[in-house]
Design a protein that fits this description.
Length: 277
């Protein structure tokens, strides 16, 4: 018999039992770890789902609060239509940002102040301007739908709803911060912000609208627009961050001022029809 052919003596039962216990303990520990890993994965999925639902719940919650607010002032029918017009406007921003691949929140409503979507600005001023402009584009389209339905049915309510939609989106196109028109105007030429602030002040004086809400809006606009406009006038604005390229500015100016003209025409036509119905 060679040395390589030696047979090891059998291990005592106690030693075998110890190894089995070690293997069993390792297997139990591994099973516990696997179970914990699976449980943690499920917990993470639940947390993500809850956060996702929380975002939707919060957004829809603000919608219903605004609906109650406007309905208590103007009635349920107008409240529903008005909130839907605001929602369509905000979805214009939301869908445009999503199309650009930019993270954006669902519309959040603030009773008496409209609504907003939260999104970081891109590094492309033209994209930011387009995203800002698409809100009024969708809003004017919604007002046009109300107008067409009012003409079809002959109901003055829908003509009045169309007028409100045209006017509010026109107001939002004022070339001053924090309006959508201010973001578009800034990408064209920041000095327009000074013109926008002057237009808003002129509107308040001509209409004698000195309500606390309007005074608040004027204050926000002056604080936001005047320093930016002065900086743009002095050439202190970084064109790479705020001003679009020359060709893009021409196209944006055409779209911006063209939309203003459409909103003015729609508001003028609907207010005239409303008085004759």
């Amino acid at each position: 018999m060679h040395d390589d052919d030696r047979v090891e003596p059998p291990q005592p039962p106690a030693q075998l039992g110890g190894q089995q216990r070690k293997r069993g303990g390792a297997g139990a520990a591994g099973g516990i770890l696997v179970t914990l890993a699976v449980a943690w994965t499920k917990i993470k999925l639940v947390l993500v789902a809850l956060l996702w639902l929380k975002g939707y719940a919060f957004s829809f919650g603000t919608i219903f609060i605004s609906l109650w607010f406007y309905a208590s002032l103007f009635g349920w029918k107008f409240g529903v239509v008005f909130v839907l017009q605001i929602l369509v406007h905000e979805m214009g921003h939301y869908l445009t940002f999503r199309n650009y691949g930019v993270p954006v929140s669902l519309p959040m409503f603030v009773p008496g102040l409209g609504a907003f979507v939260s999104s970081p600005m891109t590094t492309d001023p033209a994209r930011n301007a387009v995203a800002a402009l698409m809100g009024p584009v969708f809003g004017v389209a919604a007002a046009t739908v109300c107008w067409g339905y009012g003409l079809f049915t002959g109901e003055p309510f829908w003509i009045a709803a169309a007028y409100v939609g045209f006017f509010l989106n026109l107001f939002n196109l004022i070339p001053a911060y924090p309006f959508d028109g201010g973001r578009v105007a800034g990408a064209i030429d920041g000095r327009i912000w000074l013109v926008g602030a002057a237009l808003l002040v002129g509107f308040v004086v001509l209409t004698h609208n000195y309500s606390p809400f309007m005074i608040l809006i004027v204050g926000i606009v002056l604080i936001s627009s005047i320093p930016r406009g002065i900086a743009a006038w002095r050439g202190e604005v970084d064109p790479r961050q705020q001003i679009a390229e020359p060709g893009q500015r021409v196209m944006m100016a055409i779209g911006y001022f063209g939309l203003i003209a459409i909103a003015i025409a729609g508001a003028a036509a609907t207010v005239s029809q409303r008085t004759h119905l």
